[in-house]
Amino acid sequence: MNGRFPIALHILTLLSKSGEELTSSDYIAGSININPALARKEISNLRNLGLISSKEGKSGGYTLGKSAKQITLADVYQAVKNQPVLGVAKNTPNPDCPVGKQINKKIDELYIDLDKTLLKKLGSISIEDFANQFD
Predict the structure, then answer these.
(1) Alpha-helical regions (H) of 19-102
(2) Whole-prediction pTM value?
(3) Chain centroid to CA 109: how far?
């Protein structure tokens, strides 16, 4: 698992709290306490997926690309997921072993079930719902 989900969620929550006000990548990076280049990389990903809108130029910045009610935590998860939550084995199991020859298929089935459960839970929470927990 990587740290992209909490970074993306932080960005979207911050933009939700900012309303229509444009927010700079430097401000976002400062809020998360990460390198601005890392923040801009995640902002770019979220913008490419339509979750963030941008205005270029000196007075530019970022806002949500759609209503905070319309963006769910499942959208955030899917935007940043690059591997199963529980990781991926780097070894190739022994195909002559009764467990080894089936383990990857069974783990894949488990991961599909876990993803469905996780997406169902995350899909029930909007960015607005999440952001409303903050002052």
Answers:
(1) 25-32, 36-48, 73-80
(2) 0.86
(3) 23
Residue 38: per-residue pLDDT: 93
Residue 69: closest CA among 124, 134, 23:
124
Q: How far apart are CA 28 and CA 62, in angstroms?
A: 9
**Under 8 Å between Cβ of 14 and 31:** yes
DSSP state of 23: B
Q: Which domains are present in the chain?
A: 4-85+125-131 (1.10.10.10)
Q: What are phi and psi of 22, to 5 degrees?
A: -70, 135
Q: Give which of 111, 124, 37 is closest to 81, Cα–Cα.
A: 111
